[in-house]
Amino acid sequence: MTGLDPGRAGAYIARWDLPLRAVESGPGALATLPAVLDRFVPVADLALVVDGTPITYPGGDVVAAVRGLLPAGTPTRTVTALAGEHGTVLDEPTVAAGVAAAKGASLLLSVGSGTVTDLAKQVASELDVPVVVVQTAASVNGYADSLSVLVRNGAKRTGPSTWPSALIIDHDVLRAAPDRLTRAGVGDAAAAWCSPADWYLACALGLDRAFDGEVLQPVLDAAEVMLSADPATPEALTALADTLTLGGLAIGATGTTASLSGCEHLISHLLDMAAMADGTEHDLHGAQVGVASVVSAALWEIALEDDGVGALTASDLAPPDDLRARVEECWMDLDPTGRLGAECWAAVERKFTTWEEQRGGTSRFLGDWAAHEETLHRYAYAPEVPARALERWGAPLRFADLTPAVDPERARWALRCLPFMRDRFTLADLLLLAGRWNDELVERVLDRAARTGGGL
After folding, report:
1. Distance of CA 190 to CAs 182, 303, 381, Å?
2. CATH number at residue 53
3. pTM for the model
4. pLDDT, tens digit, for every residue of 346-396?
5. Is residue 297 included in any domain, yes or no?
6. How far is CA 134 from CA 112, 149, 162, 248, in A?
7. What is the pLDDT of residue 2?
8. Domain limits at 204?
9. Cis peptide leading into 164, omega within 30 of 0?
């Protein structure tokens, strides 16, 4: 089986003792499904989780092909994810409906998008049953991890769900997926060139678990190939699939999406939340993450090279006096009821309360700035790197390139609101504490991103 090196995946699984026991990746991998399911014999009742979207490849309809590979006589029910004006949104009603429909199943088998997979993992967690995942596009890294992105009170939240017991990645299926899904995968993969710096910062301040560069290096190695391989070749598809799969394993191994989800993912979540709140469409998660990765890399470059973060002292840092008002202001136009603002304020208040309790970590971090700066430069790539990957693969580079296009004022709004949405600490929070998070900085970041072809 070609594709993801079984030795590399096996080393990951063994090194961190991951519950995901099998990754079958390469052309024709779908044919391994019967052998994978044999590990769960007898399957008393199988629930096939889908969203009803037709998925085709050279072998025909993917869901039909999966049904044809199931052991004869296997009791099978279909769990179709609820869909609304924004497609399938993993809010409380959608998860509850999935749980009700799958109740009694001894195994879940998901076939579809990253959202369908997140739903299956969440339902499997609540029912305490295993889940096998058939990946249908190289669009996100969430197929291979143990977390799900849910919507609570209108806000995007990431929480623990369950590990897939097995992951099947058929490259023939990936190659047949719509190009926009593959380009979205490139965008999600591009986060590897900026998000680890945000994670390192949080860890160095004592606000997250210990940073582990060993977890991330295989992801960065795979991503490097994406910069040189011809996107039309099997080598390039393998590099993309590997980057995403290893990224999911890394997220699972660290127990937090923070290892590969920083400011760039926050920007994407903010765009999603704004679109959901005002009833408009938004682009795919990965497409937005790619555009935002160029912006996030530009922010890191400015902070490290122009703004002299290392010259700060702990006494220079404090939350603004009007913090709550600033949080609520971000959301008032989108949700006048205040429900969304209250959800975000609870998270932001928790974040800065934790920071206050860990001020000693900030003092140590700034006192040993030279060592930390070297590491941050290693993980915060120049914005030209994600921009080069996006351009090479034909993925969106600017907010205006997204479908639908994000207008400049909404893009600026998303950047301004970066510190005011969730409890995870990033560079935006440090700059807010330093009194530097303002419209002038947002414009500088957008201008720097524009020099690579990104930004507005």
Report:
1. 13, 20, 10
2. 3.40.50.1970
3. 0.92
4. 999 999 999 999 999 999 999 999 899 999 999 999 999 999 999 999 999
5. yes
6. 7, 18, 15, 15
7. 40
8. 190-209+256-450
9. no
